[in-house]
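Budget justification note: compute hours in this period were largely spent on complex prediction jobs such as the one shown. Inputs:
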Amino acid sequence: MTTETEATPTRDLESMDDIIIAENVDKWFGDFQALDNISMRIKEHEIVVVLGPSGSGKSTFIRCLNRLEEHDAGRIVIDGIEMNDDVRNLNAIRSEVGMVFQQFNLFPHLSVMNNITLGPRKVRRMPKLDADALAMQLLERVGIPEQAEKYPAQLSGGQQQRVAIARALAMQPKIMLFDEPTSALDPEMIKEVLDVMQELARSGMTMIVVTHEMGFAREVADRLIFFDEGSLVEEGTPQHFFENPQEDRTKLFLSQIL
Amino acid sequence: MVDMPAQNPQRIVLPPHRERARRPRIVRFREWARRNLFNSRAGTALTIITAAILALIVYGVVYFVFVDANWRVITENRWLLFAGGYPMDQEWRLWFSVMFVFLLIGLTYGTWASLGRRDHLFIVLASGFAILLLAHGGAAIWSTIWYLIAVGLLYAGYAIMIRMPRDASRGRTLQQRSVAGLLVAALPIVLIVLLAFGGARPRELEGFVLNLVLAPVGIAGGLIIAIPLALGRASRMRAISWTCTTYIEVVRGAPLLGWLFVALFILDDVIGGELIVRAMVVLAVFTAAYMAEYIRGALQALPHGQSEAAHAVGLNQFQSMQLIVMPQALRISIPPMVGQAISIWKDTTLVTVILPLRELKGNADSAIAQFEFTPDRIEAYVFVAVVFWVVAFIMSRISQRVEGSLGIGER
Ligand SMILES: Nc1ncnc2c1ncn2[C@@H]1O[C@H](COP(=O)(O)OP(=O)(O)OP(=O)(O)O)[C@@H](O)[C@H]1O
Ligand SMILES: [Mg+2]
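Corresponding output:
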């Protein structure tokens, strides 16, 4: 894409096969430590589901991955790009990482179409016609092409979240972050969003998903990660987690949630 | 919803709303009157007393307007009231401005809204009043004709725009952009027409025309200053936010009249120029402080997720402000902004109050120079200003406290 030619961020070649690298990441809010020495590596096309009780730092962690939160110590490398104070690096990372929020955060003053095309047009400098075509294609993909001209407030929660997914995909990211994408939805709408996410996972997207949907975690995830009190307590395959968890805190959490 | 009765036959089925509304008007009125005017003995008594008082007032007003009052004082002096010292041979400039503004109103309504029955009624009544004023005495047939052309332009612009399709398209975008562009350019255009190329000098703006020029200048200028001011106040950089906060608190600390006196006496020594122009600057600076606070309030009311989502799709800080945050913040702050605009419109009368002082000051400056306290006059103003400022500052602090304890300012 154009941004890669105009801003050539520093790439760390040795670690190219791990698309996300976090090493000893700490995050403090004042004197409260929200993340404590988190290290993990995520491969391209991998689907990682993050579990953990409320306040355990799940959101904080994935928000560090596109710098909605700034980490205080340690190192984060996304697709070979070092996360640091260099604005060019940050821009490169943000256009490779899409994010879907619990509260959708659609832009209420813009139509569905403009919500989706805004990023491509303003950041990627895509011509309007191309951006519109891309947006229609994405709306087809999330199953609501007929809503293109509506405004977010005119859509149901499930439809809004699907627009939010389309909006993130419009930047053609390599990685998608989901922060409890179904937690604000009525039960009957959860499935339509999970279906879209499942389709996305099958298409080979690298995904990190914070969710309490255990069905999704069991079926779709390659790996589960359990957070508690800002630490990474346990990680493993769904099988490992649901049949043979090791840590007491993990067992306690799973017993409460299942 | 429509097939509800079929699913649930026990439900009492109300006729659709439109069905009910079709009852004869008189029946509906009787219903309404019974419920709202005569619902109890006390209610009936109140209604009768109120009606009696209203009738007395209406009688008084009508008697005054049609019998008692001598309107010639208005009609004979209409030019004085309306345009004051504006050079009479340049009258076309005024009419051109009126026509331009009327046309713009038509275009704007046709593009974004539509004229309802009440709007038409208002235009007709207002026009009747205007023509009564203009045509009275018969001397000013041309004024009436100019005015009618202006109204014609309003309707012509409206008729053209209302016929354009409203759904999103390139044509629609072009239409919106052009009208918005005209709206933005309107004030400079009117000012140029009125003042430039052999038009009036600013000091010749008088009467109603002066207010009509001052208020938009204050509002538009205020808005232009207010946006960076609000952003500055919300800035994380201390030096910037303190500077903006100081500006806002100092300006809000004194009443407009006080600042107009500053324009009259102090700014004269500092920047000079015509008093009217200085007054325009003061109005804009004054309005900006209030508008900045409304915008800041709106910025705080906006969910943080909006700018986060903007960053997440890759927009930078400036784009996020320009495309996501500001459009929404401005929309939220429209109601208080309109209030501010109305109050500035009324406050332009204060400018008229200080205008006579301009001669007074000019004459007095040399004479007054003999008095021993003259060099201290700025000190006197400063003292009064500080007293005003302290009281207003305390009020603003208290309101912040209240705001804080209600959790409005927090996110
Ligand atoms: N901006 C902030 N300022 C101060 N503390 C914060 C901030 N954001 C998060 N925290 C704190 O950091 C901790 C981790 O928060 P985080 O939102 O990451 O939890 P979470 O695991 O996502 O929880 P949940 O499941 O409720 O979303 C919490 O104790 C929270 O109070
Ligand atoms: Mg969270």
